[in-house]
Amino acid sequence: MNRITNQMINNTMSYNLQRHQAEMDQIQNSLATGKNVNIPRDNPIATTNQMLYRTRLTEIDQFLSNINESRSKLDEVDTALQSTLRIFQRIRVLTVQGANGIYTSFELKEAIATEINQHLDEMVAIANTKGATGRSVFGGHQTGTEDKPNPFVPIYQTLTAGNQGDAMIGVEYRGNIGKMKREVAKGEYMDVSVPGNEVFWATNQILTANKDVAGYAAPTNQTIRIDGREINISAGDNLDIIIDKINYAGLSVRASKGGTNNLIMETTTPHQIWLEDMGSGTVLKDLGLINPNFPEPPNNIDPAVTIGGMSVFEMIIQLRDDLIRGDQELVGGRDLGLIDMGLENILKHLADMGATTNRIEELGKRTEYDKGNVLAMLSASEDIDYAETIMNFKWLESVHRYALAVGARSIMPTLMDFLR
Predict the structure, then answer these.
(1) If we measure between CA atoms, which residue out of 251, 228, 242, 354 comes closest to residue 298?
(2) Is there a contact between 371 and 64 (Cβ–Cβ < 8 Å)?
(3) Cβ(67)–Cβ(360) under 8 Å?
(4) Most CB atoms closer than 10 Å: which of 29, 77, 187, 412?
(5) What residues contact 264, with CB distance under 8 A and at least 6 apart?
(6) What is the pTM of this model?
């Protein structure tokens, strides 16, 4: 039989009281913070889940921020394209008026041509639009420098015909082909801009090299880049092999061989072709397409290359000049057809921006829904049930009081009490 002493009873009572106090302190902390895990050792598994939920919430919040920024940038592009569309529609009306033969020569040369000039200036201003961050909307990744603040640079010359004075005779694109991307979901990126050499182009571009390269063979392994897509050229590749590699690269560009064994490149969608020899490569220079003295794009096409196709600015300039000359046949035929082609390209990009915006809107709704789900799981994992917790606290408080009462009565008799 075990001998039970007063010391053993006291120790047991103290242990139980301290255990009750520790449990009451833990529940009291939970009631004060509203959380069922205050330190990791309270519940390691729940702590791990809560860390994962909070990490996911941080990701979702960043994606929502990216989605909102993407929506703003798409709105900037859409606003500029809508303005461009209105100008095109007005120019088309003027073109029809200039072609129908009911206006006098004075009206054609002075009124219509002058308004066309104003629309041309406004079109360049729209192409150089800067967004809320100060970056050019249509400049690609080109942020602008002191010597090149705008992606589109007009070229002026004094014109005496029609008393137009200094008039625009061309526009050079000095941006690049970069597209701003935003991560709108894990591993999912979306383009939120479009470079100006795609939007402000009226027709397909054709580059015809005037160089016979029948006996050409690449001297070394090299890499060329066309419209941002890298194509590997192996040592010994001739013109036919290079053409095949270009055509199977998945580009909106088709290459072919001309009658004089020269290289011809034509876009399949309206845009300006972007050509680069990577590193120390010389393939495109050797084939007669890139100017060896100015190899970096843009505007690096060899002067001997015959360039076909027009930007919207060149198209409008040609229309203005035909109106000034009073050539109604060209205005109503060639020029009106080119305007319709440019208008179609603008509408295409507007439709693309609209589809992207709709996708962004739906993605935003889905991301908000995901955030609600994660918040619900986090709440279920870390939040306490106040009613249940208060009930447990009251129950523990009652047990503690009973323990105190029982202990007080059990340790009260001592040897001195019996000696009295």
Answers:
(1) 228
(2) yes
(3) yes
(4) 77
(5) 206, 207, 208, 209, 255, 256, 257, 258
(6) 0.78
